[in-house]
Design brief:
about 170 residues, mainly alpha, about 0% strand
Length: about 170
């Protein structure tokens, strides 16, 4: 709807996503119970989180703040990122099923963007550490949707460093 210039419809749909997506997908602790019941709980939680972040980025462009929306359980996207950080910090202590290895690239972009959006150094540090381990991250597609940051080129992403990305974010916001 937004792409077609139907901003009122886009706003309405994003507003409805609060109940349809955020309220039903995040528990009070930031976990995603539907995803945790799967055999690849981290993988599906990261994928679902990416979707919630896409919605928040699209909403931001229309003046709707989904980044800080507290759902009916009191959880936010920030809580969901913090919950997944427990896996990154201690993968052997993860109490949920994960039948295959988790690539750090599935999580890196979420931590980089959440670090910026919530001004959280712990998220930024986690994003940096994951990036240094795997050398890439799924978030490059997510970054393309950050308002005013569509100028990011693939080579910029490949040359990523926390400092460079922070500078790009600041330049794009001006």
């Amino acid at each position: 709807a937004k792409y077609l210039g139907k901003t009122e419809l886009a706003y309405k749909m994003l507003e409805e996503s609060k109940e349809k997506r955020f309220d039903h997908h995040l528990a009070a602790d930031g976990s995603q119970p539907h995803e945790l019941s799967r055999t690849r709980s981290v993988t599906y939680s990261a994928f679902n989180l990416k979707g919630l972040m896409y919605l928040a980025l699209l909403a931001e462009d229309l003046g709707l703040n989904l980044w800080n929306y507290k759902n009916i359980n009191g959880a936010t996207i920030e809580d969901a990122v913090a919950f997944l950080k427990t896996y990154v910090d201690n993968p052997n202590d993860w109490p949920y099923e994960q039948i295959s290895a988790v690539s750090g690239k599935r999580l890196t972009g979420a931590f980089v963007i959440a670090g910026k959006k919530y001004n959280r150094d712990d998220f930024r540090k986690t994003g940096d550490e994951l990036y240094n381990r795997v050398g890439e991250y799924f978030g490059h597609s997510l970054l393309r949707f950050v308002p005013n940051e569509r100028i990011l080129k693939e080579q910029m992403i490949q040359e990523y460093s926390s400092k460079k990305l922070s500078m790009l974010y600041e330049l794009a916001k001006d």
